[in-house]
Amino acid sequence: MALAAALVGAGISAYLLVEYGTGQSGFCATGSGCDEVRASAFAYPFGIPMPLFGLAFYLAAAGIAWRSLEPAHLLGMSPRVALAALALAGLAVSIVLTSIEAFVIHAFCTWCLGQAIASLVLAISSAIGLARQEPSGLVNRDISRHAKRVAVREAARQLDAQKRGLRREAFLVSGFMAILVATLLVGGALGRGAPGPTENAGANTTARLAPASAPRTGTGPVTVVEFADYQCPACQAVAPELQQLVTDGSITLVYRYFPLPQHSLAVLAARAAQAASLQGEFWPMHDLLFSTHAAWENVSSDEARAYFGGLASQAGLNLQRWQADLTSPAVAEAVSSDAAAAKALGLPGTPSIFINGTYYQDGLSLGQLRSAVAAANA
């Protein structure tokens, strides 16, 4: 079981490493959680993609598990002791990373949870294997030579059977994970070429996606419409990239509100931006909300309201008017109308981006966005 858990963890890590390397979004059962985790500050420790650390860990665990039936020691320890120690360390790291997703990022990556389960199973199975480890040494000297030979042959037979079972387990699990990863990667590639929400939803022209009431900036020839959430780390990460394209004169950027239900302050933040929009200061407030994201994402609603008031003052707004607009039905309707439009389009999460009316499904790096914009303008 320890070998199977390690191979499953390695397969998941390999899949995530491809996603990180290509910048493509794959299957995620937790909505936009996978993209949010990948866009967080914890995704690239020391500039290295986190899945690479996971792949190294699980491959090391698989290698030790493979040698667990051999008597040779590793670093002065039996393979089973070494595996248990490594698995315990991996479980501790997994608990820390899952806690970061829960309490810092406020989003869960489906595949990261899969890795956490693999680490838990690895730790439990290695501990069980360690508890069942039989002491080494010579066969009891008090028994006859014939009995000794029989006991040795029986032990060798059992060891050979265990090794065959281990090889069979490795073959089956490796094959299953290879097929699963290949299916996910091929399915993701085909999915990116399939019709997106724009095509599936009917006559969704750029004008319909970007109503005149929506905030916009820039005068570029390509219109980019972004449905976003101010409490979404991936939205925060892509905001400066989109602004750079505006500065370059490549795009006209249109912003639509799409506060997600798992983000407790997303609606309030969207209303804060919309209230600023009524004074013609949407973009300064928009930029402040994203740039100060870390300062307000974990506070209470009352604390966030007070903090947003400070941002409104910083943006040069009439604070009394902003406070009145913040709770007005008109501002609430503007935010809920955008959210309803996003749901009607069948958007999977945030950020959801349209380039000249076509749903964009590739990576969020500046280079990838720039290439997509150039293609749309060709």
> What class, by secondary structure content?
alpha+beta
| Proportion of helical residues | 55-70%
What CATH architecture label of the largest domain applies? Answer: Up-down Bundle
The CATH class name of the largest domain reads Mainly Alpha
Strand order of the largest sheet: 1-3-2-4-5
Number of helices: 16
Secondary structure: number of strands = 5
How would you sum up the global shape? Answer: elongated
Largest sheet, if any?
5 strands, mixed
Please tell me the overall pLDDT.
Answer: 84
Q: Rg, please?
A: 27 Å
Q: What's the CATH H-level homologous superfamily of the largest domain?
A: VKOR domain
Low-confidence stretches: 199-203
Could you characterize the architecture of this molecule?
The chain is of the alpha+beta class and 378 residues long. It folds into 2 domains: 2-193, de novo design (two linked rop proteins), CATH 1.20.1440; 201-376, Glutaredoxin (3-Layer(aba) Sandwich). It is 63% helix and 6% strand. It has helices at 2-22, 33-38, 50-66, 79-105, 110-131, 145-193, 197-200, 206-209, 233-247, 266-277, 282-291, 293-296, 301-314, 319-326, 329-344, 366-376, and strands at 216-217, 222-228, 251-257, 352-355, 358-360. It has a 5-stranded mixed beta sheet with strand order 1-3-2-4-5. Helix 9 (233-247) links the parallel strand 2 and strand 3 (251-257). Helix 10 (266-277) runs antiparallel to helix 11. The protein is elongated. The relative contact order is 0.11.
